[in-house]
Design brief:
The protein has helices at residues 36-47, 68-75, 89-101, 146-152, 159-169, 185-194, and strands at 15-20, 23-28, 58-62, 81-86, 108-112, 125-130, 170-181, 197-206, 215-222, 231-232, 236-237. It is α/β, with parallel strands linked by helices. The strands form 2 sheets. Strands 3, 4, 5, 6, 7, 8, 9, 10 and 11 form a 9-stranded mixed β-sheet that branches. A two-stranded antiparallel ribbon has the order 1-2.
């Protein structure tokens, strides 16, 4: 079991500290800051229908931001190695410091790169995960802050490019897990078909059972290995209090 970190990450002048489940995360004061999406994805990877908890399980996170999803995945029981990719240098730097403070450097490797153009080293992953930009390219008001803009709008990582990358880098039985707004479900189905993937599972997320889901976690697999139809899983709560305490 993982112990709570004994240190907090070193902070830059433009950062502050967010403490979540006893872990400290350096975040920008004015730029990109993680939200409930990170918790939803990390918990899904370790406790959801597509969980992968064996030490042999290799995972890639595309767009790790400040490293929250990878760190919480390990804290909630993920035992394998994680390659966490981040395009923005300042975010990758935060992720590296957060991983170091969490004493998870032996499991999580943060790489500063554009995942869609980085060289293929022939590693194939059992899980690929991403909390990608929610807004399609050309839609929505662009935020003047570059960190927020790149994290929220598909200026560098489109749904199509993310799915194509996953199709190439997954093992034959691997799973891609991503979050998107509910309204983009049909688009996801279409892009999956174009990239030789298929949606295997859909987990709706909402603040309470009385409200319709606003976010979906999609599990996609290689199309040639999928024989069953889409499965809708029980709704997941988006309330932070609903997440269990970490293993300590």
């Amino acid at each position: 079991m993982k112990e709570a970190p004994k240190t907090m990450p070193e902070l830059r002048p433009d950062e502050d500290l967010s403490v979540l489940f006893d872990f400290g995360f350096a975040q920008s004061k004015t730029g990109y800051r993680f939200g409930i999406d990170a918790l939803l994805l990390a918990y899904h990877i370790t406790n959801g229908p597509a969980k992968c908890l064996t030490p042999e399980c290799k995972m890639m996170e595309i767009g790790t931001g400040s490293g929250v999803v990878s760190i919480l995945s390990v804290a909630w029981g993920f035992l394998g190695k994680i390659t966490a990719i981040e395009l923005q240098e300042q975010l990758a730097d935060r992720a590296k410091r957060n991983v170091q403070a969490a004493s998870m450097g032996s499991q999580i490797t943060v790489i500063t790169a554009d995942a869609t153009t980085m060289a293929d080293d022939q590693t194939r992953y059992d899980r690929i995960i991403s909390n990608p930009p929610f807004h399609p390219k050309g839609q929505g008001r662009l935020n003047p802050n570059s960190e927020k803009m790149l994290s929220r709008h598909e200026s560098t990582l489109t749904m199509r490019s993310l799915f194509a990358l996953a199709s190439q880098r997954l093992t034959p039985t691997g799973i891609l897990s991503v979050l998107y707004p509910y309204k983009r479900l049909e688009e996801a189905r279409s892009q999956a078909t174009k990239t030789n993937l298929k949606i295997q599972g859909i987990t709706p997320c909402s603040h309470n059972e009385a409200q319709p889901p606003t976010i979906l976690i999609l599990d996609l697999v290689q199309a040639h290995n999928q024989t069953t139809n889409e499965t809708w899983h029980p709704q997941t709560s988006m309330n932070r209090a609903s997440f269990p305490k970490l293993n300590q």
